[in-house]
């Protein structure tokens, strides 16, 4: 099927190909028969176009109006998902499990590296429905052959194709090859270690809990206890207060401990009560009607999503709630200190603390996490410690009744006192320009692009740097949650035309000293680089709402695509000393005042004052 062939012959069968290993069969079949090739995979689309084979790229069908409509539908659905006719069927002892799982429902549960192939997730599903509706407006094949594994995209295809009378078959029926799994999601054979883990883990958990309790009773029983959901941005405050308070680290591993027998029975009873209440609601016609989207009845997907995923999440959350309650009561926790990240875990800890009458403090992590995730958590926390007056104004608008403390960003304390004028400036710059790239994480599937967030970001960097070829060297510093093998595989597809390496061990300050310029979409990394006098280009490929640090006039250059990034790099390559002399470091940093190295001290003071006020309040009650 050549490029010149008309793409709208609705009588042709359709091949929906998303796995690269099926490419040879597609290319061979195109020589002998007529069919339409459709994909949502950016690598497949590029490979087929290089062979002059016409391919329909699903993401190209998305319009801004469709995206806005899908987002509005999601927001409306999330707000009313757990409440029907005034009844919240997820309510347990005043805690709404629906509130805790709001973020989890909205995004993907299991990530994959292909666009639109997340296993679960409302956002990928609704966008896939939009795409198939657009695809079938001008094309109506009698049969579609596909190589999709169970996913939100496959569910959308089944629903839309079923309502249009289109038959679905696996591509293996045509090619004679096995049904290939989605890349990097196939399960490996369980080892002996995995088999023993389920028996060893409970015993090890009980031993660690006993050691923690014994250490507290022997050495710290006289100190008030501060519960802290472990994160590096909270460590400076802990170091300043560890002589006065005992910090109970509530690591994610704690939440996977099994509660005692009574706690398990209580959680099971509460879970059954939720399921019974929900069952009476789901059978009502008015409940099912809310799932009609763009004229397509999607209730089949949403109800099965609840059955298969959310009920399991509820059971896990109820068990975790029992563990947290027992932990808070046993150690007599006086205050909960958390960061604005990992929404589900933090909401559960905050809501349990609030139920037990324990104050909680949310500390801003990064430059724009607060606006992204933290605002919903602040609705239930008692206090907020933020990085700047701009962030404080944001919190006051959304939570006017909550005390807000401007402490500054804890992570930047270590860089205070390092003057940008003290950094050595080269009198001349020879090739190559040394570029440090902070990689993006794969937290979200970006359904309106050719790939997920990290792949889109990586492709943009490679395209821009390849335009400069031998004039640059690039070091990719991986996020701790990233997988090196996955990045190496992505680079084989992108075929970079410059020298590069991956960095996993060196800390950011040391890495910055060895490079001339940094590219990043990580907000805290940007601020650290500016503090150390290194120029930064903020790469905003997804055009997400940018924080106050990157507003117009802030002095920080920002690129939204590969061409803009290449133009900025070209300026640095041509005359690096002049580029550096014109770079403004202080204007962006002015947005995160106060910046004086005492953020951790201010946070420590808030912790002490909160505990003192709690003691006075309890004394007045007595």
What does this structure look like?
- The chain is of the alpha/beta class and 622 residues long.
- The protein is 47% helix and 13% strand.
- It is built from 24 helices and 23 strands.
- The strands form six sheets. It has a six-stranded parallel sheet with strand order 11-10-14-15-16-17, sandwiched between helices. Strands 20-19-18-21-22-23 form a six-stranded parallel sheet, with helices on both faces.
- Strand 10 (225-228), helix 10 (235-241) and strand 11 (246-249) form a beta-alpha-beta unit.
- The longest helix is centred in the middle third of the chain and has 33 residues, at 299-331.
- Mean pLDDT is 78; it is low at 1-8, 108-115, 181-188, 419-427 and 443-451.
Helix/strand layout:
Blueprint: E1 14-16, H1 23-29, E2 36-39, H2 42-50, E3 56-57, H3 64-80, E4 83-84, E5 87-88, E6 91-92, E7 95-96, H4 97-100, H5 102-106, H6 122-138, E8 143-146, H7 152-163, E9 167-170, H8 172-175, H9 192-220, E10 225-228, H10 235-241, E11 246-249, H11 261-282, H12 285-289, E12 292-293, E13 296-297, H13 299-331, E14 333-339, H14 343-355, E15 359-363, H15 369-378, E16 383-386, H16 389-398, E17 404-406, E18 433-438, H17 453-466, E19 472-477, H18 484-494, E20 499-503, H19 508-513, E21 517-520, H20 523-531, E22 536-539, E23 558-559, H21 562-574, H22 576-581, H23 586-589, H24 599-621
Parallel strand pairs: 1-2, 1-8, 2-3, 8-9, 10-11, 10-14, 14-15, 15-16, 16-17, 18-19, 18-21, 19-20, 21-22, 22-23
Antiparallel strand pairs: 4-5, 6-7, 12-13
Helix pairs in contact: 3-6, 6-7, 10-24, 11-13, 13-14, 15-16, 17-21
């Amino acid at each position: 099927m050549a490029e010149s062939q008309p793409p709208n012959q609705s009588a042709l069968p359709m091949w929906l190909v998303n796995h690269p290993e099926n490419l040879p069969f597609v290319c061979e079949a195109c020589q002998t028969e007529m069919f339409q090739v459709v994909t949502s995979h950016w690598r497949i689309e590029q490979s087929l176009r290089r062979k002059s084979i016409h391919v329909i790229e699903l993401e190209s069908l998305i319009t801004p109006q469709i995206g806005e409509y899908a987002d509005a539908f999601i927001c409306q659905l999330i707000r009313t998902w757990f409440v029907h006719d005034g009844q919240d069927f997820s309510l347990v002892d005043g805690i709404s499990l629906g509130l805790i799982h709001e973020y989890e429902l909205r995004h993907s549960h299991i990530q994959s590296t292909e666009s639109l192939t997340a296993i679960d997730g409302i956002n990928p599903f609704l966008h896939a429905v939009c795409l198939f509706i657009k695809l079938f407006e001008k094309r109506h094949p009698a049969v579609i052959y596909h190589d999709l594994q169970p996913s939100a995209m496959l569910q959308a295809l089944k629903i839309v194709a079923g309502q249009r009378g289109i038959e679905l078959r696996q591509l293996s029926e045509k090619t004679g090859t096995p049904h290939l799994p989605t890349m990097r999601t196939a399960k490996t054979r369980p080892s002996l270690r995995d088999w023993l883990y389920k028996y060893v883990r409970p015993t090890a958990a009980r031993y660690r809990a006993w050691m923690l309790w014994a250490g507290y009773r022997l050495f710290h029983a006289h100190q008030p206890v501060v519960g802290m959901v472990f994160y590096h941005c909270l460590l400076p405050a802990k170091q300043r207060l560890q002589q006065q308070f005992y910090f109970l680290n509530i690591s994610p591993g704690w939440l996977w401990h099994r509660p005692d027998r009574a706690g398990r029975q209580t959680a099971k009873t509460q879970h059954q009560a939720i399921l019974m209440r929900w069952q009476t609601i789901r059978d009502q016609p008015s409940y099912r009607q809310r799932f009609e989207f763009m004229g397509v009845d999607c209730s089949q997907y949403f109800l099965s999503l609840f059955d298969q995923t959310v009920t399991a999440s509820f059971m896990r959350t109820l068990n975790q709630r029992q563990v947290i309650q027992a932990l808070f009561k046993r150690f007599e926790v006086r205050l909960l200190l958390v960061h604005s990240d990992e929404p589900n875990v933090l909401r559960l800890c905050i809501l349990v603390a609030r139920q037990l009458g324990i104050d909680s403090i949310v500390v801003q992590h990064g430059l724009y996490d607060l606006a992204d995730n933290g605002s919903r958590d602040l609705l239930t926390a008692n206090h907020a410690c933020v990085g700047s007056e701009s962030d404080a104004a944001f919190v006051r608008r959304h939570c006017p009744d909550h005390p807000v403390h401007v402490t500054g960003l804890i992570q930047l304390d270590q860089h205070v006192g390092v003057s940008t004028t003290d950094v050595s400036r080269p009198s001349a710059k020879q090739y190559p320009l040394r570029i440090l790239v902070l990689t993006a994480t794969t937290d979200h599937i970006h359904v309106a692009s050719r790939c997920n967030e990290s792949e889109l970001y990586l492709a943009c960097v490679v395209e821009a740097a390849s335009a400069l070829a031998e004039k640059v060297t690039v070091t990719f510093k991986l996020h701790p949650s990233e997988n090196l093998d996955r990045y190496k595989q992505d680079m084989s597809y992108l075929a970079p035309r410059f020298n590069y390496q991956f960095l996993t061990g060196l800390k950011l300050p040391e890495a910055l000293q060895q490079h001339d310029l940094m590219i990043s979409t990580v907000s805290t990394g940007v601020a650290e680089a500016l503090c150390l006098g290194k120029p930064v280009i903020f790469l905003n490929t997804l055009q997400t709402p940018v924080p106050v640090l990157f507003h117009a006039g802030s002095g920080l250059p920002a690129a939204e695509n590969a061409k803009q990034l290449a133009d900025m790099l070209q300026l640095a390559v041509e005359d690096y000393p002049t580029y550096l002399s014109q770079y403004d470091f202080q204007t962006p940093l002015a947005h995160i005042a106060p910046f004086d190295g005492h953020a951790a001290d201010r946070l420590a003071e808030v912790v002490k004052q909160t505990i003192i006020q709690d003691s006075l309040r309890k004394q007045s009650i007595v």
